[in-house]
Amino acid sequence: MNIIPTPGLLTVTAQDFNRCTLLRQHGYEHLAFQAQNDANLIDHDLTSAKSAGLYAGVWGVSYRIADFHRDGQALAQQAKKLGATHLTMDVEQAAKGTRSGRGLKPVVDGCRAGGWTGPIHLNTMGPPVNPDVNDYEIDVQSFLETGGGVFTQAYANETDSFTPELGVRYWTRVGVPRDRLNIQVSLYAAESDKEHPGRRYDGAKWSELLSAAGVAREFSVFMAEAAKDEDLAGLDPHSMRAPIPPGVDVAANRVTELALAQETVDHWRRNGMPEAKLQRQRQTLAWRVLQVTQTAANLDAIKADLDAAGAPKP
To answer: Rounded distance, CA 69 to CA 87, Å?
Structure first.
């Protein structure tokens, strides 16, 4: 199972069958349980998630370079013990400056030593300030070589520079293929040491930001236990979106994006988004379709629709 292009969630708590079934009904495909944090190991029963039709994986956290191998091995052993379908390691500040010398390879080597043979995913920070210039110099290659991807914490509610749009721009600039990038959003209020303490974005707000970044289904949620019913509903335009079948020429089929954009706006309208905000968001979505559509008849239709609405180019 390639989890990167699909919607998923992370959790640190047990999720019962009814909860997992609800998440699956909202289109989520994978759920990762925290099974390791530094030297601490945490056991979870993955049965409910699997029975509900979710891929059930594990995630862990490593804080120090000296512990990379140990932590990778411990997480892999937990994954094997619990019967996980996927594995992700969260490395943040300690990952900076590791590109030269392949400094994150010990995490991968540790996972292999622990018996994990599948892809290994990296979960890490949102983009730096001024992402077109600045660079964390993180060793993503060690994870990409395993078939894994990068899950970036685009927590714009905490930090203005962490928007999904800037996340996509930064990580693709430093070598992460777009189809190996998953945008992670947070349903928690920002902590006291963040740029915007206490600020929380609901699912509808995150859906706006994901749309502005051109994100379809390739997103994940931190965490399942913080997702209210209204958050899940607000994210439905992304989590419930039909996947693109293998082999489909995406560029040639972009004409469907306008209908999907209108669907998204209609969903937000039903959930009470103010009309002025709806119009701005619809404008952004439609002009994005206009830029990538190659069929003249559809281009004319989109232009006429926008002109009639009095929507200027963004």
So the answer is: 15
Could you tell me if 38 and 71 are in contact, meaning their C-beta atoms sit under 8 angstroms apart?
A: yes
Q: DSSP H helical segments within 30-67, as ranges?
A: 47-51
Residue 102 near residue 141 (C-beta atoms within 8 A): yes
The burial class, CB within 10 Å (0-12 / 13-18 / 19+), for 276 is exposed
State residue 313 phi and psi, 5-degree precision: -65, 140
DSSP 8-state secondary structure symbol assigned to residue 127: P
Residue whose pair of structure tokens reads 């990296």 in the numeric block = 122
Beta pairing, strands 8-11 & 219-222: parallel
Phi first, then psi: give them for residue 19, nearest 5 degrees. Answer: -65, -45
Distance of CA 64 to the CA centre of its chain: 24
Residue 242 neighbours by CB distance under 10 Å: 10
Rounded-to-integer distance, Cα 180 and Cα 263, Å: 27
SS3 content of the chain, % helix, strand, coil (to 5): 45, 15, 45
Cα 289 to Cα 163, 246, 254, 256, distances in angstroms: 21, 21, 7, 9
Beta-strand relationship, 30-37 and 87-90: unpaired
The answer to whether 314 touches 283, Cβ cutoff 8 Å, is yes
18-32, pLDDT tens digit by residue?
999 999 999 999 999
Alpha-carbon distance of 255 to 129, in angstroms, equals 34
Global pTM?
0.80
Q: How far apart are CA 270 and CA 109, in angstroms?
A: 50
| pLDDT per position as a tens digit, 250-272 | 444 444 555 556 666 677 777 77
Token output for 159: 């930090």
Contact 85, 73 (CB under 8 A): no
